[in-house]
Structures are given as C-alpha cells and as structure tokens.
Amino acid sequence: MVSSTPAPHYARLSIALHWLMLVLLAAVYALIELRGLFPKDSVERNLMKDLHFMLGLSVFVLAWLRLAVRLSRPTPPITPKPPAWQTGLAHLVHLALYLLMIGLPLAGWLILSAADKPVPFFGLELPHLIGPDPDQAKFIKGWHERVGSWGYWLIGLHALAGLYHHYIKRDNTLVRMLPYK
Question: Distance between CA 75 and CA 125 in Å, rounded?
C-alpha cells in the first residue's frame, strides 16, 4: 500500500544534485575569478578557463536532470506553511536559478562558437552552435558576464532564505534539503 502522507524530505537524488550543483557553481565562479592570478595565455590561466567552460557545461546538463527529477517527484511541504507571498517569491527565485544554470552555460557555448574557438568538454570538443561572428561573441560575452554577476546575488539570496527559514522562522525549509535526516 502506498502512503498518502507526503515525504518530509526531498528524494535522495534531488538532495545529491542540489549540493553537487552548489559545489560546481562555486568552482565555476572561483575559476573565472581566480584566472586573473595568471598571465594571459599562460598554461594555468587557459586551464582555468577550460575548467570553467567544462564545469559550466556540467551545470547545464545537471540542471536539466534536476528539472526532470523535480517535475517527476512531489515537493515535500514546508511546515508550518509559509504565507503565499513567500511561496511565490521562492518560486520566482527557483525559476531564476534554473534560468541561470541553463542560460549562462548556453551563453558560454555560444560565445566560444561565435569566437570560433573549441568548446571543450572533458576530452570531447562540442560542435559550434552558431557560425563565427566576433561582434556576436562580444555581445553575448557582455551579457554572460553581467548575468553571471547577478548570479552572486541570486545564489546569496537563496542561501540567506534557507538560513532565515531555519534559524528565524524555524520551519523545515532547509531540513528538507539536507543530506542527513
């Protein structure tokens, strides 16, 4: 017999993907920020850029998997139930995070394509999505960097909301996503 009581936690796969994405996003941001420690065209700087691209594309792939898992399994309820405005805001932030995790890697792929550069992915070279166009590469890169900067705030807001719910509201919002029960 199947229980009609909703689970108090997200599925293990959802939890694992959530925390893996956190690690990957931290690495993607760290790699692009720290590349400036090395001279242009140095082996170290180029390696950091390649890792930034490859881990960013990993985020792209895993974001789609996360969406599939999220849509296929019920979301555990928050107890006590938050006001409707908080739920609506949470949905908007989650939507923005998914757009970030899909849109930024896609933009990176488009930048490399338009710049007619290889698109590395762990020993593979992915095909270009668009033809060479240096002006288009520059335009997309500007937006990629701008939206990437907004990502710091969005990720920070998401983390602060989890901590707020855990320590101030004392509901189960954060506990639902913790890897231990």
Answer: 37
